[in-house]
Write a structure and sequence with these properties.
Layout: E1 2-13, E2 16-28, E3 33-37, H1 44-51, E4 59-64, E5 67-68, H2 74-84, E6 85-88, H3 100-105, H4 115-128, H5 144-156, E7 162-166, H6 174-191, E8 194-198, H7 202-205, E9 210-215, E10 218-221, H8 236-243, E11 262-263, E12 270-271
Helix pairs in contact: 4-5, 5-6
Length: 332
């Protein structure tokens, strides 16, 4: 889906230059869920903007489905963005004077969908996120969680290939956060989306298939903990279920019933269970310090290119007229 090679992004700051991205090499497979973490101001949002075609790199290749976004004309990038990429923002970015249904419809205007088709598709999208009874409500009449659901519906109504989410739960309470992430995960699985999600919340990041860490404009990947289950990619469950009947019986399949075997620590000496095996498990080792994400706030990693606040002079959000229609959108 994506292949980034040697991508850099520099911003001018007075007479100096701030390096937001420094030689990013990244491959994102079709249908993958990638979470990106890192300290504030170290390039996470800049990377998301590059992936979404909202900004162009200073150098490097941004290959999206065989096309280099860095080399396309602006009109071509706009078309790719309108057809193939959905965005979800931390601050919802809904038009306050439009109803929930009209906000969702707005994503279809650049695609020249007829008025009747827009209304129907917007209604279906809102029903899919549990807001079928809030079609006529304006954002001010909705809770924060409901507004973010409208934003998710707006991102998905055009049936994109990619969903880019920048801190989608940053303004929500814990329970609502879980609801929204559960909704995004469901949509990812059911629709086979490629999803890139920027978050400071480690509990959310651990639900993704891969976790990237942005520090000082460089991207590294955290190795998954041994034995940690990864979310199944869309269709994997069905494929596995179909394959199971075709599996030939092995020696392990012929074990007598109710006679499980256990492996010693060296995995070589198998034996029948005895009293020691039936003892209560020791749960003290479940306090795994490997889950501590304190390494994300490392004062030793200060970059001389950063300002006194420790953050880059990056855009606060995806400010793009094509992805956020103005109040002047006309509906048939």
């Amino acid at each position: 889906m994506y292949k980034l090679s040697g991508v850099t992004k520099n911003y001018q700051k007075g007479r100096g230059t701030v390096a937001a991205l420094r030689g990013i090499d990244l491959v994102i497979e079709d249908g993958e869920w990638l979470a990106v973490q890192g300290p504030t101001g170290h390039g996470k949002s800049t990377l998301l903007q590059i992936l979404g075609g909202l900004d162009r790199p200073s150098a490097g290749i941004v290959d999206f489905d065989g096309r280099d976004l860095a080399q396309l004309r602006e009109t071509e990038v706009t078309k790719v963005r309108a057809e193939s990429i959905g965005f979800v923002f931390q601050t919802f970015n809904l038009i306050p004077t439009l109803s929930a249904q009209e906000n969702v419809e707005a994503a279809l205007v650049p695609l020249h969908v007829s008025g009747a088709a827009r209304r129907q598709r917007a209604q279906i999208a809102l029903e899919a996120v549990g807001l079928g009874d809030r079609l006529r409500h304006v954002p001010g009449e909705l809770s924060g969680g409901q507004q973010q659901r409208v934003a998710v519906a707006r991102a998905l109504v055009k049936e994109p290939k990619v969903l880019l989410a920048d801190e989608p739960t940053g303004n929500l309470d814990e329970d609502t956060r879980d609801d929204i992430i559960g909704l995004l995960e469901t949509m990812w699985r059911e629709r086979g989306l490629t999803m890139v999600l920027v978050t400071h919340d480690s509990s959310i990041a651990r639900r993704a298939q891969r976790i990237g860490i942005m520090k000082n404009g460089r991207l590294t990947f955290r190795q998954p903990r041994p034995g940690r289950a990864q979310p199944a990619r869309p269709g994997a469950r069905t494929a596995t279920a179909q394959a199971e009947p075709a599996l030939a019986a092995s020696d392990a399949d012929l074990q007598p019933p109710d006679m499980p075997v256990y492996a010693d620590a060296d995995l070589t000496d198998l034996h029948e269970p005895g009293p020691a095996d039936l003892a209560e498990p020791d749960l003290t080792d479940l306090d795994d310090t490997d889950l501590d994400d304190s390494d994300l706030d490392d004062s030793d990693l200060d970059d001389p290119d950063l300002d006194d606040s420790g953050s880059l002079d990056e855009p606060d959000s995806f400010a793009d007229s094509d992805s956020e229609p103005a109040d002047t959108v006309r509906f048939d």
